[in-house]
Amino acid sequence: MTVAEELPETPETADEEPVKQRKNGLYPGVSDELAENMKSGWADTELRDLEPIPQAAETAARRAALSARFPGERLVIPAGNLKTRSNDTEYPFRASVEYAYLTGNQTEDGVLVLEPTADGHKETIYLLPRSNRENGEFWLDGQGELWVGRRHSLTEAEKRYGIPASDVRELAGALREATGPVRVVRGYDAGIEEALTDKVTAERDEELRVFLSEMRLVKDDFEIGELQKAVDSTVRGFEDVVKVLDKAEATSERYIEGTFFLRARVEGNDVGYGSICAAGPHACTLHWVRNDGPVRSGDLLLLDAGVETHTYYTADVTRTLPVNGRYTELQKKIYDAVYDAQEAGIAAVKPGAKYRDFHDAAQRVLAERLVEWGLVEGPVERVLELGLQRRWTLHGTGHMLGMDVHDCAAARTETYVDGTLEPGMVLTVEPGLYFQADDLTVPEEYRGIGVRIEDDILVTEDGNRNLSAGLPRRSDEVEAWMAGLKG
């Protein structure tokens, strides 16, 4: 017999699904005596002295701005659900950026609902309550408290997030009965979307998604502080890597990946994206995340990595380092060209400038060098007009940064790449040159060399601030820094 089969219905369990047993578990069922025993004898663990999360004032202001933008409409923003990795194991959960940005909460199955009122919206955060002790969920269910850890009670959640909390298991039914205009952020919770299927339109939902993306273009003081934390941890992660390059040479790029990941997990939530630990010709693959290749003295290591804080803000920094600590003459020539391009790009980051200005400035320097080296026929204006430099510098020179490594991606083109820089925006400046190993249009000695330099730049009232200035960039400074770390 099982608890789900034998326990009588109670008001708490009548509308809940039965607790599922694993098919091939060693215990075929639960006796009535054990079920009763497990219901009692537990201490009261309610947390009564909780303080609001540090960003509670900021999340409240964000919700107020959202409310003002969509008066009279019900707004539904889900956190998302667990995703299966294999069989009965799940990927680590990361809440949707939209939900975390507006609430500060990071738990699976959560949903923020703004219900329209005469003078704004009534806010409710729908969450799973503490796992049930009456029906055995807390010790029998794979997501029960004794298996995956304690959830906050709804009362605790209200204290932490400053939002009235309700049981999310009641939400789908309530949404099916809802009337009036509704918008939902799609792609995170199929059950919530199904409950709203006849009440929403793709066009209206996209407007909500775009607005929430554009809200994040300008960071508040809390966000800037978190980004600086992420960058500072990332700097330490790069130092960790330099100290173990000899061990990476003895193994593979994965030693570098694992070394940086340790720093990310110790000081933050995770890495903000798959670390690119690209040695030798792998540096020419822009998103090399297999990280299974050799690390050889004399080659370059392109390390593109960022720590993500506990509040989901991520750094995004790249350095291209000589594995043995010294650039060859040709490596230095290419590296210095990228450095000069980045210097030009960073100088163009200032309030009132066009977003595209830093990209154009960096690309001009790279095009000039390619013409100077005889790799492409000038003049430079012709090269830029036709985009001929892109054979060796494939990507844009940067992007917005925040809770997503490519933040604000759903923003309208006119407010992002065709927009104007404002104080509080944070973006990367990351020019690169990549000479593929099979590129017969360049001299043989160039082939297999890839260089990128990337920093995280805050637009200030009077210019910019390099959040990642703690990592050397100039080639001679990089060599001295590496020598110091290697002792």
Automatic annotation (TrEMBL):
Q: Which InterPro entries match?
A: Aminopep_P_N, Creatin/AminoP/Spt16_N, Creatinase/aminopeptidase-like, Pept_M24, Peptidase_M24B_aminopep-P_CS, X-Pro_dipept-like
Q: What class of enzyme is it?
A: hydrolase
What's its catalytic activity? Release of any N-terminal amino acid, including proline, that is linked to proline, even from a dipeptide or tripeptide
Cofactor requirements of the protein? Mn(2+)
Instruction: Provide ranges: composition bias, Acidic residues.
Output: 1-16
- Annotated Gene3D superfamilies: Creatinase/methionine aminopeptidase superfamily, Creatinase/prolidase N-terminal domain
Q: What GO terms are given for molecular function? A: aminopeptidase activity
* Key words, A-Z: Aminopeptidase, Hydrolase, Manganese, Metal-binding, Protease
Aminopeptidase P N-terminal domain sequence ranges: 54-193
**Region Disordered, annotated ranges:** 1-30
Q: Name one Pfam family in it.
A: Peptidase_M24
The similarity comment for this entry is:
Belongs to the peptidase M24B family.
**Which protein, by its recorded name, is this?**
Xaa-Pro aminopeptidase
Identify the species of origin.
Streptomyces cellulosae
